[in-house]
Amino acid sequence: MEQNLLEKTGRTLQQWKQLLAQQSFSKHGEYMTFLKKEHGITHGFANFITLKFREADAASFDADDLVVNQYRGKENLKPIFDKMLAAITQLGADIDVAPKKSAVSLRVKRQFALIQPSTKKRIDLGLKLNDTPFTDRLESSGPFGTMCSHRVQITEIGQIDDELMQWLKAAYEQAK
């Protein structure tokens, strides 16, 4: 998106950042409104510029920092995350681990899993599984919406078991 910014808006990202730095706004929406109404910027570019200016997008952070921030105040869940991530990456060398601000996405050709510390006591593992019935443990996707079809709530390291790994392997294979 940044490579098209000058052509589509007449300014570079740095020029837009300098302009926004002169404003006294404090909220994301205020910057967006300013860019859209005062400068005729489309919603997508206004959002991109604002995120980059406020350094509020995942790309403005180092991947390790994103994970550290996800588990700040939830340090008790980090060993569960570490064990789960190690087990998942053993499924194949082609797995892309992509930390975001609130979760870690796991993909091959498409996303197959999402690890999110949802509360101070629980990690939610979202899975994209085709034609797989729900069970007491393998629930509907819940807060993940269409990003995932299923969710497993994990509260202790022992829940990373053979059954969970079978679901992860199935999701991984379906995403290839």
Which structural traits does this protein have?
single chain; 176 residues; alpha+beta; 7 helices
Give an overview of the whole structure.
The chain is elongated, with a radius of gyration of 20 Å. The protein is of the alpha+beta class and 176 residues long. Strands 1-2-3-4-6-5 form a 6-stranded antiparallel sheet. The protein has 7 helices and 6 strands. Helix 2 packs across helix 4 (43-54) and helix 3 packs across helix 4 (43-54).
User: What distance separates the N and C termini?
Assistant: 27 Å
Derived from helix and strand composition plus strand pairing, the structural class reads alpha+beta
Kindly report the oligomeric state of this protein.
single chain
As residue ranges, the low-confidence spans are: none
Q: What is the radius of gyration?
A: 20 Å
How helix-rich are the residues, as a percent range?
40-55%
Number of helices: 7
Strand content: 15-25%
Beta strands, count: 6
Describe the largest sheet. Answer: 6 strands, antiparallel
Backbone shape = elongated
Mean pLDDT: 90
The succession of helices and strands, N to C, reads HHHHHHEEEEEEH
User: Main sheet: which strands, in order across?
Assistant: 1-2-3-4-6-5
Give a brief rundown of this model.
It contains 7 helices and 6 strands; from the N terminus they run ααααααββββββα. With 176 residues, the chain is of the alpha+beta class.
